[in-house]
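Quick note —
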Amino acid sequence: MTQKPFMVGITGGSASGKTMFINRLVNTFSESEVCLLSQDHYYRDRHLQPKDEMGVENFDLPESIDHEAFIHDVAQLHMGIPVSKKEYTYNNPNIVPKTITFNPAPVIIVEGIFVFYFPEIRNQLDLKVFIDAEEHIKLKRRIKRDGQERGYGLEDVLYRYEKHVAPTFDRFIRPFRNEADVIIPNNHGFEKGLDVMVGFLKSKISGS
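Predicted structure written out below.
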C-alpha cells in the first residue's frame, strides 16, 4: 500500500450500540476495502485487571487495556504493516482463542471505549465518530446483553454499571464527545447516520 489508509475512530459509552453499528458499517464493504481493529482484543488477562474496593475486577478502566500493544498495532496498520493478534474471548475458559490477522486496507476502523482517550491513537485518526445514546437506554441494553451473552445476574449488572461503567463514561469517554467529527444518536436507530458514513467512506475508497 503506497498511500496511507484513512483512519476512522469509533467510540461511545458501553451499550450505546457501537458493535451493531460497526458490524453494519463494515459488512457494507469488502475485507480489501475496510479493516476493523477492536480494542476488545487488547484486554489484559483477568488476573491482571484492576479491582475496586470490593475486590471486583473493573474492566472499564484504561489500565484494563494493554494500551502499549494497542497503540503499537494501530501504528503498524497505519504504516501498511499487517498485525496478528489472539482474539478476545471475554475470559471464557471454554473457548480456545484463534489468532486473527488484520491486513491494511484503504480504510482502517479502530473502535473501543478508549480510542479517543489514548492520545497516541487519537492523534492518528482522520475521522472521529461518537455513537451516542441516553443513559437509561444504555442501561436497559446492558442488562439485556450481559444477562444473555455473559450470564451476569441483574444485581451484578447494576453493580458494575453504577460502580464501573457510569463513572468511566463520565471521566474517560464523555469529555471527548465534543472532539468528535460526527455524533450519531442511537436511541431508537442509526440508519441515517449509517447511510452518511457508508457514503462518505465509499468516496474515500474511490478516491473522489
